[in-house]
Known about the structure:
By secondary structure, this protein is of the alpha+beta class. The chain is about 55% helix and about 10% strand. The chain has one domain. A four-stranded antiparallel beta sheet has the order 2-3-1-4, covered by helices on one side.
Amino acid sequence: MPSDDRGILRIHGNGDVSARQVSDYLRSVVFAYESLITFEIIIGQYERRWRAFDSYGPFPIPLKDYWRTVLPPGRSVIPSGAEVSNFIAPADRLRIHSVTISSPGFWEFFGKLNPLEVIRQYLTDRHEQRKDREYREPAEKKKLNLENQLLENQVIRERIQMAKELGATNEDLTPIINVLVGKPLSKLAPYQDHDLIQDAEIVEVKELPE
């Protein structure tokens, strides 16, 4: 039976696009979704291991170094789609639920609710910003807006708070947030700028897929 930690994300947009654009768009959505799950997994693993060590002394690896240990040796850049996919259980992989190809149309994705909600809020907030006459702002200000959006997101904020309660600092958290949250989400921005994506919503349905 479906679990209440699953949901359906509907992303509105225009359907008059090339097949290559659709292919790239779908890969970017999957990459953002799987990167967000990887972020949650790493923070959760760190918490469990930290608490296991708590009775015996400080956890031996700071978070800023720990998260890199889950990647192949020597990696210090953003993980590839294949790398984050290694963290995703088969039951948690993103599935296409429904598609309406028109202008406007929509794509519906079924998966874990937390990452879908983060994607929804990012796209919805950015859609509202694009309506603003002052949207064309300097790159540094856009970067700051993204950082503020991430901190306002309940899912991300709770993970950050938990890590800080375990002693993580902003220096510890910044690399993992940039690599597994900020950069993957920002890959969706060009599709929104070209109206392949507009806004997004979590769809309420009577019965979720199994």
